[in-house]
Amino acid sequence: MTADDFGLCPEVDAGVLDLLEAGVVTAVAVLVNPPFGGVSGPTAGWGSLTERFDGWGLHVNLSLGRPAAPVAQVPALVDEAGQLHGQVDRLVRPEVIDQVRVELAAQVDAFRALTGRLPAHLTSHKHLGEGHPALFEAFLDLAGRLGCPVRTRSDLARQRCRERRLPTPDHFRGDVCPGGYWTEARLADLVEGLAPGVTEVMCHPGRPMAARAGVWYAAEREIERRAWLAWAAGPGRALVERWRGRATPATGREGSTLVGFSVLQGA
Fold first, then answer.
1. What are 128-152's pLDDT values in tens digits?
2. Which residues are 171's β-sheet partners?
3. In the 8-state DSSP scheme, what is residue 53?
4. How far apart are the first and last CA of the chain?
5. What is the dihedral of CA 78, 81, 86, 92, to 10 degrees?
6. What are the start-end ranges of the H helices in the chain?
7. Residue 193, Cα to own-chain centre: how many angstroms?
8. What confidence tens digit (pLDDT) does each residue in 174-212 have?
C-alpha cells in the first residue's frame, strides 16, 4: 500500500501520516525537489519518522517544482521560470536524457540528505518514469544502482524489469479521477479482486485542501483518506492489525497479506 506525494504540502503530509498511523500504508513515495520534501504536520522531523517506519521511497519528479540539481546542469528540463516542465517529447531527446540522469541522481542525493538513508523503492510522479522507453531505461538504471524495487504499471514494463533482474510488483492498482479514485465502495471488494502475486496499491490521501498550481487532485485526497480509514476499521481490520503488530504475516481473506516493497528484495 503506497501513499504518493509526501512532501507536496502540509495537507498531503498530514493525510499520509494519518494512514501511516492507522497502519494502512506500507510504503510512502516522497517528493524531494524544491520546494518539496520538508516534513510538515505533527511530527518531530525525519529522524522520528525514519525510526518508526522504513518504507520511505523516492517519488522521482520531472514535472513539478524546481530541479534538485543546479539549473545550469539541467537547463533543458526547465521552463523560462526555472520550473520543471515535464514535457516527455523534450525530455527524451538524445542530447537531453543525460540531463535527466543528472536530475535523478540529484534527487537521490536530496532524499538521502533529508532522510539519512537511500530510497527503499522508486516511483515517479505522474508516472513519467514509464512515459517513454528512454525515460524508463534511465529510471531503471537508477534503480539498478540503488538495488531497490520499482513501481511498474504495465506488463511490458514488468517484463523489462525481469530482463534487467530488477524487483517489481506483479500487479498495480490505483489511479486518480474526479471525485476520488479510492472510495468506500471501491475498497469494499479490494482484497477479493486481487490477482495472485504481489500487487502495489497506490493511493493519494490528504487532509482538506484547495487545488493549486500543477495539482488538480485536491479535494479528492480527503475522500481517499476517509475511505482508507474506514477500510482499516472495517474490511481491512485484520490485515492492518497484523501488519502493525508484525508478529505474523498480515493474512486476510483468501490468503492476502499486507507487505512492503522489501518483500520483493529476495524474489
1. 999 999 999 999 999 999 999 999 9
2. 199
3. -
4. 18
5. -30
6. 10-22, 46-52, 88-91, 97-115, 133-146, 155-163, 184-187, 219-233, 237-245
7. 22
8. 999 999 999 999 998 888 889 999 999 999 999 999 888
Grid cell 472510495 in the structure block, residue: 183
> Residue 216: exposed, middle, or buried by beta-carbon count in 10 A (0-12, 13-18, 19+)?
exposed
Collapsed DSSP state (helix, strand, coil) of residue 168: coil
> What's the structural domain count of the chain?
1
Residues 157, 136: contact at Cβ < 8 Å?
A: yes
What 8-state DSSP symbol labels residue 1? Answer: -
Grid cell of 244 as nine digits = 502493525
Which CATH number is 142's domain given?
3.20.20.370
- Full residue range of the structural domain in which residue 258 is found: 2-264
Residue type for 239, please? L
The amino acid sitting at 203 is C
Query: With contact defined as beta carbons under 8 Å apart, do 23 and 252 qualify?
Result: no
Q: Which residue has 479490494 as its cell numbers?
A: 190
